[in-house]
Design a protein that fits this description.
5 strands; 16 helices; 427 residues; globular; 3 domains
Length: 427
């Protein structure tokens, strides 16, 4: 699940001091070994760039792709490798692959009724209606272009993903929850969509099946029945030569019908905006972990992962969106409400928090809103510093960094959390 990276298992430590002394090289030997290793990696990645250029010249595009990706792993060659890969893909020198095994596995898990739909960069497996599925595909493509625009401004040297990315759309919320629990071990019912690092796919449901929406529509149906009853009674009053009563009943029916129309429009807008934001949010997770902006083998703090995703949420996807554009007004407005009510956790705790496992919906909402406020503030203040912070985690050793190291990385990048805290939500 997004953020819940597999725990990093450390090797067993040797308990015999004598054996440890025998196998541990001296400090000088360690320095020499480290230098030799770095020189070897540098030489290897430099050679990869040269070999990739040679493969490209010979139109051996798959080989060039492999070598450029290998060179990208070295920070010294990352930018050059990324630019070369983009030239390779933009020039249509290589065709985007599809992970047939992952697609077939997902279809077998989903069961009958799911249809495959391909866009330029995504594979969508859906049992929703064709119009909804097509609109999600268009929004995924739009999100992809905005993600890479922002990643470029952050200086992340994000790679073009090597294969089409998988999205699962489930029409019914209960079916979604059943699938999420059984296939991806999702335990929180308040999660309306998710990205799984294990299966490398996003999964969410059509919000038209949300029980809250069903209850609202039921109330509207009851109100419409009241309108019909009032109009029938008005017609009867006319027949009974009671124009005053007929007029009052007709006016009441007209007023209720107007309010029904406004409420129906409001609910439709909320449902559309919610589904749009959710699609974008999960797509950002998927893109981040498939472009090298984030690596599944690294442990990124919760605020960074979710702040990145929420900063793209918008109700106007036709315009440019992201942390430098119109960030979700609902999340930032809610953040200010919760901040005023004293429901925010200390920033020093937030920046070292790795996941929201075990949180209820109310606590999770506060954490998401605080993460949105923090990420967007840092992005607008200094996107280059935010990019360097993300790269520092990416360039660290795989696995857990620990709370002390996470806090140290944050403060060295952005300053003291106590001084930063009062500024959130001011931009």
């Amino acid at each position: 699940m997004r953020g819940a990276l597999q725990p990093h298992r450390l090797s067993k430590a040797l308990s015999a001091a004598a054996i440890l002394a025998l196998i541990t090289p001296s400090h000088a030997q360690q320095q020499l070994t480290l230098a030799d290793t770095e020189d070897h990696l540098s030489t290897t990645n430099s050679a990869s760039l040269l070999s990739a250029a040679d493969a490209f010249a010979k139109t051996d595009f798959p080989r060039a792709d492999q070598l450029y990706r290998q060179a990208w792993n070295n920070p010294n060659y990352r930018h050059q490798a990324a630019m070369s890969l983009w030239n390779l893909y933009r020039g249509k020198g290589i065709k985007l692959e599809t992970d047939k095994n992952a697609i077939n596995t997902a279809l077998s898990q989903l069961g009958p009724g799911f249809v495959r739909n391909d866009t330029s960069h995504f594979v969508i497996l859906s049992n929703c209606d064709a119009r909804f599925t097509q609109s999600r595909g268009e929004l995924l493509e739009r999100t992809r272009s905005q993600f890479y625009r922002v990643a470029d401004r952050l200086g992340l040297d994000a790679l073009p993903h090597k294969s089409k990315l998988i999205c699962i759309l489930i029409a019914d919320r209960n079916a979604y929850l059943s699938f999420a629990r059984s296939r991806d071990n999702l335990k929180s019912d308040w999660i309306a969509g998710y990205y799984s690092t294990k299966t490398n796919r996003i999964v969410f449901y059509n919000d038209n099946s949300n029980p809250d929406l069903a209850a609202a529509k039921d109330n509207i149906a009851k109100a419409r029945a009241q309108v019909a009853d009032a109009r029938a009674r008005a017609a009867k009053a006319e027949q009974d030569n009671n124009p005053g009563l007929a007029q009052r009943l007709t006016a009441a029916a007209d007023d209720l019908e107007s309010r029904i129309k406004a409420e129906d429009s409001r609910i439709t807008t909320i449902t559309t905006d919610t589904t749009t934001a959710k699609t974008i949010h999960e797509a950002i997770h998927l893109l981040a972990f498939n472009s090298g902006a984030q690596l599944p083998s690294r442990e990124y703090p919760f605020w960074l992962c979710e702040g990145l995703a929420t900063s793209f949420e918008t109700d106007d996807p036709k315009s440019a969106f992201g942390p430098d554009r119109s960030v979700s007004r609902e999340r930032l407005s809610r953040f200010k409400e919760l901040q005023k009510a004293g429901h925010m956790r200390p920033l020093s705790d937030l920046v070292t928090m790795m996941d929201a496992n075990g949180c209820d919906a109310q606590t999770a909402e506060a954490i998401y809103c605080q993460s949105t406020a923090l990420f967007t503030y840092l992005y607008k203040s200094n996107p280059q510093a935010l990019g360097r912070y993300i790269r520092a985690i990416t360039d660290s050793n795989p696995g857990k960094l620990g709370e002390a190291r996470q806090l140290s990385l944050f403060t060295s990048s952005f300053g003291d959390t106590g001084a930063l805290e009062p500024r959130l939500g001011t931009r």
